[in-house]
Amino acid sequence: MESISSNARPQNSREDATKRLFKSIYEQFLKDGLAPDAACAKAIQELKNRTKDVNRNPSKAGPSGGEHVPMESDSAGTVSGENRVQKEWPKIELPLPIFYASELINRLPEAKYYKTHVTYSFLQEPKSSSEVDWDGLRRFYDAVEEQGGAAERAVVRAIREFRWKMFAKDNRSLENYESVVMTFVNPHIASPAYLENALPELCETLTDNIPVALESEENCEESKLVKAFAKLNSQDLLQIVQNLQQAITIRCVEIDTDRDVHKDAKIISYVRTMRYLFLAALVDPEPMLDWKANLQSNLDIVNSSSSQEQTENNEMDVDAPAAEAAENRNNGGLNEQTEDERVIDELLRSNLLNQVASGGTMTDPLCKKLGVNWISVNRPKIPYSEFVNEVINNALRVERDFINLRYPDGLFDEAEEDDTRFSFFHHPFMLNTERKTSFLFYDSREKQVMIRRNVEFLGAMRELPFLIINVSRNNIIQDTLLQLEMVIQDDPAALQKQFVVQFDGEQGIDEGGVSKEFFTLLLGEILKPDYGMFQYNEDTGYHQFNPVQFQDTEKEYLLLGMLLGLAIYNSINLDINLSTCIFKKLLGGKGEFQDLEFAHPDVYRNLTQLLEADKDTVESMCLTFSVTLKDMFGEPVEFDLCKNGRERDVDGLNKFEFVELYADFLLNKSIDKSFNAFRKGFFLVTQRSPLRALFRPEELEAIVIGQRDYDWDELKRTCTYDGGFSAAHESIKAFWSVFDEMDEGERRKLLEFYTGSDKVPVGGLARLKTKIQRSGPDSDRLPTAHTCFNILLLPAYSDREKLKTKLFKAMENAKGFGMI
User: Fold this and answer.
1) pTM of the model as a whole
2) Does 622 qualify as catalytic in the annotation?
3) For the chain, how are helix, strand and coil distributed in percent, rounded to 5?
4) Number of domains the chain is built from
5) Domain termination site, one of 233, 262, 280
6) Which of 252, 581, 719, 788 is catalytic?
7) Do 572 and 790 form a contact (C-beta atoms < 8 A)?
8) Exposed site from 313, 416, 531, 672, fewest CB < 10 Å?
9) Per-residue pLDDT reduced to its tens digit, 516-537
10) For 605, phi and psi rounded to 5 degrees?
11) 415-451, pLDDT tens digit by residue?
């Protein structure tokens, strides 16, 4: 048998084999329709490539001395990992050439037989040896798409080779991460040509081979990749996000409906790759106007000068109240806490320490290393909405994903083969507010079940799985405060139980309607001008914390904070419009200049004009470092923004400092005492909750006060009927005819009449599951409602005008649950 060693083969045999191979390749190109000169050029190039392959892996040479050379399926196998790299790539690699976009585009006709993986690492601008020619790269990808066929297959093969070569153990570098970015810039990477193998394999290799960031690491690999993505402009980064979203959507359609999306390997790799893009959008926002850049520079200086103690105290989103309690102790109790305040602060600190000890802070080490916090970034390079995938949200079974989160090592030690222990909880940017609320719901129910099991285990069934309070309508604030203070003293965990209200001297079981009325009545009292706790801004429609107060209302603010938490855990929307900035502060953020745009738009406009003004215009305004506010009686009260602020003039140089101090005073310092009490109350209910890991300020605002958009067509479309009514019934037709004539205010009043609230819950009006039920024949009785179940009880009025008159009269005279 002839040896397969090329050294033992006569020279003329090798030449003959080469000629035969060249002839067969050339003839094949002619059959493909290429001109003789093009076929000859491509045959020569293919011959060179096959020779390189044989030299790299002699074991694949055929008995005829190398005529068998691996085709695409050989060099683009699915094997990944370091072993494959060490086994098949040469020990000594030759320097790879540098190509420019124009060269590569010109060589596309021969791309089928050219290893284009070099393009991802070495496509550079002609004028520089270190800068990527991004425009040229996009032109190259467009040319590949236009050429199609062989050129596209070559790029696919290049990606599949590149994806494991670049992640060899000693081959990770910033240049290679930049090469990853260059690969993803391909605007067509989510097309069928790449979607079958190239893209999923690239994402899988990317997420499986980069070590996860650890807090102890000084220079982690994940941060290098994120920073490489962050170099892209918003258009390119958005294109990559949209491509991955398309790939996720297609994969969701492909997989079996019985298979959970959090167990599919491809979806998991796509989502984990999306995490890097999400963080990249936060790391490097879009360029700012000059005055914004100067303002930001001043903010950075101010923030960097903060004490280390404050930095440590606010390291986590949840510990501000505990830090305040610690400060009290360090000051020897000079703040003169009451016994109740001391108990609350100790409780918050205890829960905080337990949460830290159990790893329950839910912070991403990579976020900390990159110095980003999505709570504080109002306008990332790409809008947050671009990262939400509705197809994933529709397919996600939250209860199963939540189990995966709680039992990462398998439920009861029984793990399925394909269970990857992945949970979307750690990727909340992909989820809509409704799905996040479901996570909150399951977390609450889990806590309640654990409480009941503990009671059963101890043999003490005296405790009920409800938080029951009994209040008087005439003394609702004091009654509520007293009973909640007793709960805090005895069993703070009970604040997360299902909330049940009983009014003194009234019969009825609280199925939700009584609680809704309770919140409405209590908030109505708190928001009264007599208390002076809030100022209502008619321009914005917001209730704002009153910075100038004449009485101690900290207990009332504490109660309001608890009400927000209770409303969240009991799916009740509150009739109080707080600015998004307040919810940002609740999640651990800080009010900043840009927050004034919506919280105080008139102030924002004036300060913006100041920042854009020239030196002479600023000085002509005769401003000082002070601000004048009005108290609850309309009297002006002046405050210094810094020491001796009324004696310091604002000029063209210090205007940025003035604006920063003004915004900080208005949004933070002026309401500090009130907001701290409010925040404590909120934390008392939401302690050890995933709330702060899941929600952005806008989303927290939505679940507390409801969505601001009313889709009345959705209400009509999802309404059901009972008791003999149907959509075709004349009384129902008359009802919707009257409804269509109502203005916005009247429709909201009707909504409150038969659901107990005029707010839109997270998920839209369809979540209310409203029903119109026939309550007898035509009569002079008014319509009534079961607000607990969102049911409108409507007599079968025979006349449209009569229905309209009775309905409006019922709406005007009803008071929540008291109608029944």
Assistant:
1) 0.72
2) no
3) 60, 5, 35
4) 5
5) 280
6) 788
7) no
8) 416
9) 888 888 888 888 887 788 888 8
10) -65, -45
11) 454 445 788 888 999 999 888 988 888 887 777 677 6
